[in-house]
Write a structure and sequence with these properties.
The protein is α+β, with helices and mostly antiparallel strands and 140 residues long. The protein contains 2 helices and 8 strands, in the order H-H-E-E-E-E-E-E-E-E.
Length: 140
């Protein structure tokens, strides 16, 4: 009995040690490293079925890579930000990168929204943090 109890205690200690070893040392990271980690976490969370609404940081997001393909409603995150939402892809207007601007929305008030349809080959660019929701309904 004592051997079983000792084994259980040893396993508990090893499990606690293994769990603490898996933690990431955030204090030792630079601001840019933290920002990159935040971007990776946000991109992964948005891909999960549990996540129907999230705050997406400013940046560029590729459909099917960084964000799942689908229809989304985008809204300003807070009153201190104006939000510019742009989608790029194989359009008729070309820029240096080979991608044309397909849509542009400028959201100035908290009630304004943009509905976008992300399909493979489309890149979404947002100028500031934004609320992004999976669109569930009909659209034309």
């Amino acid at each position: 009995m004592k051997k079983i109890l000792a084994l259980v205690v040893l396993l508990a200690i090893l499990a606690t040690t293994a769990a603490s070893a898996a933690e990431i040392d955030l204090a030792g990271m630079t601001f840019d490293e933290l920002r990159a980690l935040q971007d990776q976490l946000t991109a992964e969370m948005v891909k999960r079925p549990e996540c129907k609404q999230t705050v997406l940081p400013a940046g560029k997001w590729e459909a099917g890579v960084d964000l799942p393909c689908g229809k989304y409603i985008i809204q300003k995150f807070g009153p201190e930000y104006n939000l510019v939402v742009e989608t790029y892809g194989n359009g008729s207007v070309w820029n240096e990168g080979g991608y044309g601007l397909l849509e542009e929305y400028i959201l100035l008030d908290d009630k304004s929204t943009a509905m976008i349809n992300l399909v493979p080959g489309i890149t979404l660019e947002i100028s500031s943090p934004a609320n992004i929701n999976v669109f569930q309904g009909f659209s034309f």
